[in-house]
């Protein structure tokens, strides 16, 4: 039975945007109880049609053509007042960032009870009881406490569960989930996906699930829509689209997904280690300083030791709060470690200062996560690439020549020198960031979530570039990431961290396929789309 | 730059403000040429109403002084005090804020306690105390105004620097071997500039208001004709000659308004993210 | 970061701890002001005793000699500072030679009038300012918004003392609706309700002129803050729940938008007192602001410094109130500090 049907929908962007339509020629049906995934990269317009169903498009963005029929009734162009009973009542929605999606000043219980109030359902005390039941149903550990909590007191996964409880309150026919697991850790993501799947079964609710992650799609989708630049390029059942993609773009996307496949370990020539980290410790304390404030202490890094050899790539993998980034920042001394040693060519740099630190640190450079905040918006590329060289005494002309060389090395044209960062795309910016890291001829590169902010196709290109540069320049790399797939693709050895400690370290094949610790196992199990990957490998082998 | 002007002029109020301010600046520059005589000099009988004598377009005050000449010379004083005290306040506030934000920790604590002290004490009362105890000369008026108006600058700059400091491009600059001074001057402050510029334009306006209030209370430089002094002097005769208070007040209102309007225009032009999307 | 200690703290002790911290800070600021006053007396041109005595007292040699021994002006500076602070802590703010009265007594007489004026102006400006800001933001870009915003822009640019003068001129001199000066009708000797009404009538012009400028500030802040909050994600969540526009405005946007307004109100407390000096001067309102103006004209430094000190204490009190309000509104501070 078709619950929702969209025909020829076109959604216009405000005048002056980079294209006329956010989405156009949108046609699809949603049957009761099915999970439909809309997949695409950023800017593909994948969440636009779902938002249009709710009548909640961003300011200035308007549907200009087409029909949206829900339960046999045209709902596109309904007035605000006519939409109110549908929103939260028959169609509800959850979002990507559960912290900002909840009102910070209202208790969780009140925010759930509000849904009933908005639709005039139940009495006051009944609302509270139902809110409690809902929290139980979505698997919040201590519902009695959670109902009185404020959003900031909950973890990311718990907040998303609250959002889901809110969305389920009036037993809607459709749940629209807009990247609901993107901001969550992989284990939490797996739990939330399972919850959505279970609820779909127990309630017979249809789900429109918007995501950029094919692994997630493979795990939950019944049917899939692939979008590119505001248009649907492919529609079909999950098996059709994922295993026998017809459109070139879909194929390219699927090819770009890093795989966990078994790989042969390359033995790095073990000699003297280039970098030795011994018993590194770092503790953060907040709320200190004031006379009456309570001190909260977080042991971010505890007793971390490892060695990095020449030409080797070590992946440091962990969930948020594992301390993986803190390790990287302590090594390059953007943070000062509390204890432990960091030996670089035999010199302990953990206590150096001034000119000595500067000279040693030259050999350690970093590539950052966010391509938008890692480049000074007010500096031209020429300055970004040359100022380090000039600071170390290279002449202006020599620095300029070297910068042009670097740009070429990372696949950009020398004409980029005169331009500002905002004139480049995310992937290009990340290339500039890589060029900057290489400018001082470092021997070690620390890449902190260097591809996490990029779309999957760009991610693949940047990973390839890094691998190529590593071999060409004989670099060693510390690759910090939350994504085991990415680590699998580029690393020789992997260190798994949890709550500031190393729980497992070893060659990539061992850690990924035969881990010793239960935690690593749980991380691996949580990776979405593993069955699909096996099926895909099988299908590829047949061809 | 072209973009800047397009966005600035998109705000109609800002264009009007710029127009008014240009007029005030011209008046201030031309005052000594058009009215070479001292504005303190008695030129006619007292209380000559406006528009009765073409030579004295706006009439005379209680001591027979030329009102329009006083207004013109007052424009110069207002702008001078507004501009110079803002520059001095920026010279105090920007370094304090930048150091506090960049070095954080104890430096930040110490500097911010200091700033907080100056921000908590009633600033106008402080200015009065300073001027009552020291000689009320133009220089001291400017110093007093600067002393009470730098704390918001320090707070703003600190906030901006604090957030910029943890941005990845600043970390990258550290790793590139740049020194603290270079990082602050080349990477942090240029990015903190837009809000500082907007604040500065509003500070000029506030300084002009403050100067007029001080002069109104008789704490201005006794040798310099200012708008606040004119209102203060005419206060006792408001029943009989209200225009003597009204005219300088309008002059202050228009000047301050124009600066505020320009501040809003600058805000729109420099922070395009926040620009109004409607219209 | 899973947080399991969800409901263990009610937040009451945190609030008390927070207020205690603020009080300690306030005491330090008051002490710092005393040191500052002391330094000013010594930095001023001329004999510190003459500065303390004021212009009128400086002529009297016996009075000066008395001051010198009392404040140990021939002893080392730190002893003098100690004597000065010790006195001030016991509310000995010096003696006004001209008025033949202790400064503390003079301020004590005048303080209630100032507290009444600033208190009423503060509440008035905050309530009306926020209301106007909400109204303007709800009509963003339309006529209502333009009118409210223009008024705010005008009042934000108008010198307070001039508004006061013009208000007297229009409402008192020309229209004769309201009294233009004083605290109550002289010689009327009203009692009970009649007295209250009489004072209220006298309060209308001073309180509304003082309030207008701040109303403009709060209105602008509220409007900007409402518009900013309305773009946040949780507002979209509220809409997705099917809540009505009015409910979203009140329950979700306004409450969050008030936070920066409360912060601003705290920061502006000192400004309100500055405004009171001007307002009281124009309206002959018998508060400590007017007292300061009189002292300026008579170069009565002890009174000026005393008023400065007490006004700072008053501002700290206002600050404390806004801090407490903030903590009540924002659970994040209540439950984490």
Automatic annotation (TrEMBL), chain A:
GO terms for cellular component: plasma membrane. The keyword Glycosyltransferase does not apply. Its main location: membrane. It is found in: Cell inner membrane. PROSITE patterns: ABC_TRANSPORTER_1, ABC_TRANSPORTER_2. SMART domains: AAA (SM00382). Residues 4-254, 275-524 form the ABC transporter domain. It is a peripheral membrane protein. InterPro entries: AAA+_ATPase (IPR003593), ABC_Ni/Peptide_Import (IPR050388), ABC_transporter-like_ATP-bd (IPR003439), ABC_transporter-like_CS (IPR017871), Oligopep_ABC_C (IPR013563), P-loop_NTPase (IPR027417). The keyword Nuclease does not apply. GO terms for molecular function: ATP binding; ATP hydrolysis activity. GO terms for biological process: peptide transport; transmembrane transport. Keywords: ATP-binding, Cell membrane, Membrane, Nucleotide-binding, Transport. PANTHER family: DIPEPTIDE TRANSPORT ATP-BINDING PROTEIN DPPD, OLIGOPEPTIDE TRANSPORT ATP-BINDING PROTEIN APPD. Belongs to the ABC transporter superfamily. This is Peptide/nickel transport system ATP-binding protein. It comes from Sulfitobacter undariae.
TrEMBL record, chain B:
Its main location: membrane. Residues 75-263 form the ABC transmembrane type-1 domain. GO terms for cellular component: plasma membrane. One of its GO terms (biological process) is protein transport. This is Peptide/nickel transport system permease protein. It comes from the Bacteria. It is a multi-pass membrane protein. The chain crosses the membrane at residues 12-35, 75-103, 124-148, 196-220, 241-262. Belongs to the binding-protein-dependent transport system permease family.
